[in-house]
TrEMBL record:
Taxonomic lineage: Bacteria, Bacillati, Bacillota, Bacilli, Lactobacillales
Name of the protein in its database record: Uncharacterized protein
Superkingdom assignment: Bacteria
Length: 121
């Protein structure tokens, strides 16, 4: 489990990534976070133009679920959560979220490798 605080519109917002995130995301949005983040990362790395509407929705959903996981005082709906911010740039926040997700995934992979060594597999 990893946490990161990101400043959005002069407001400190905590985000958390853990093994619970895919489940929370699937329950809340009925979507696969692995597929969504893969699409979002491809759009971000190859974006010479604007993000598509679907990319923006995925970004908002992922940011919301990670913030919700970090702070149980977050509003129960994504709309209420987004309402507390003025406009903010996806280009500033998305790299932070992708880094948090990527670091969490690397931690999980290393844990599995170390378990296999200890278990003698």
């Amino acid at each position: 489990m990893l946490e990161k605080t990101i400043e959005i519109n002069n407001k400190e917002v905590k985000f958390k990534s853990s093994a619970t995130i895919p489940r929370l995301y699937r329950i809340k949005f009925k979507r696969d976070i692995f597929k969504d983040l893969s699409k979002l990362e491809k759009s971000f790395k190859g974006s010479e133009s604007e993000f598509e509407i679907e990319d923006l929705e995925i970004f908002e959903n992922v940011a919301y679920i990670m913030a919700y996981h970090a702070d149980n005082k977050i509003p129960a709906t994504i709309e209420d959560w987004l309402d507390q911010f003025e406009m903010f740039s996806i280009y500033e926040i998305l790299p932070e979220i992708l880094e948090l997700w990527g670091t969490n995934m690397m931690t999980d992979i290393e844990s599995k490798k170390n378990f296999k060594k200890v278990a003698g597999k």
